[in-house]
Amino acid sequence: MEERRLLPAIRLSSQGTPLPLLRSCSPPHPSGDSCGFCSAALLSSQRAFCLVRRVLFASDLHARPDEPRREEVFREFLMEEAASCEELYLLGDLFEFGFVFQGRVLPAYEPLIEEIAALIKVGVEVFFLAGNHDLWMSTYLRKKGFRIVQDGEVHKILGRRTQLFHGLLREPDSLSRLAARIMQNPTCVWLYSLLPYRLGFSLALKAAYLSRERNLSFSERLQLPGLKPINPRAEVIISGHHHEPLHFTYKERTFYTTGEWFSRFTYIEMTPSRLELKTFRVDPLLGK
Known about the structure:
single chain, five-stranded mixed beta sheet, alpha/beta, 13 strands, about 30% helix, globular, 8 helices
């Protein structure tokens, strides 16, 4: 059997100080295969090259089994950008079909969840704010190490008081509000869990697609009344859900919306000196 050496991989804390070493295998595994040590070491080596404190915000991947390419691009983003940041905020609708049914998620989502969990293991703090497509995911993801954020919470991030939302506007129509109440009602959730496993997933997937079709653009809805309450101490407001990457000032406050990951591939990067919308890359198979 070939002898393998364990090589140290540097890890940095959010303050830039070294953390306990992870280890990886050398020489590389045959055929590109890797073990848990190698995966952790690769992520931690990405962090070793980060010289600037960075926090990233993303949302609205709407991952779905029949469109694997958008998830592949997002996983590239996790490796190339998120692996070297301090904190990653996922502001909802990461999944098109974010239901936990009888303690299980859709099997196709498990690799993505595990890849994000690998970031947590090497020191990236990952925050999750549930969107209208993944309202039931919070408890499941908390067990994976995600930190759960409630809609409208204010976090002090790199010195800025930042209020976080999945959607800046209240739902304008009564049907949308009723659907949200039903999905969050414990009795309704319990009754739904009594359905056969395959039927429960099938119904939820159809509901997710119908919900997507009802969405209005943020530009259209900005004309409607009903902005969610803004904390008077918040300096920056960041939101997912609207699918349009925007930066604007409204009533003397700075607002950002993250955009989406099925055609625009946008996210927000915060450093101590700046805050900006960025595009990861435009995929020719998916983008404009």
